[in-house]
Amino acid sequence: MSSDKKSFVLRIDAQTFAALEKWAADDFRSVNGQLEWLIDKALKDAGRKKDSSQKKKEEKED
After folding, report:
1. Dihedral (C-alpha) 54, 55, 56, 58: value to the nearest 10 degrees?
2. CA 22 – CA 53 distance, rounded (Å)
3. N or C: which terminal CB in the chain sees fewer CB atoms within 10 Å?
4. More confident residue, 20 or 61
5. What is the pTM of this model?
6. DSSP 54
7. Which one has a higher pLDDT value, 39 or 52?
8. Which domain of life is it from (predicted)?
9. What is the rounded distance in angstroms from the CA atom of residue 61 to the CA atom of residue 2?
């Protein structure tokens, strides 16, 4: 993740937050860290963000 992070407000219901909080604790992350991980993974899985291994491979090809 880059160091120029943006802040925004997210409103979710209490039950969803509790589940996210438990998942984050299980993975030794903060809730914020867990959300960043989930969003990053979803973007990569959808082909909307290149992962670092893809970037390195493309840089070598140039």
Report:
1. 80
2. 30
3. C
4. 20
5. 0.74
6. H
7. 39
8. Bacteria
9. 23
49: left (phi over 0), alpha (psi -120 to 50) or beta: beta
> Nearest 5 degrees, angle CA 14-CA 46-CA 20?
20
- 3 lies in some domain: no
The count of structural domains within the chain is: 1
CA terminus-to-terminus distance, the chain: 23
- Residue type for 40, please? D
Look up the domain containing 48 and give its range: 14-61
> Is 18 a domain residue?
yes
Helix axes 31-45, 14-26, angle to 10 degrees: 90
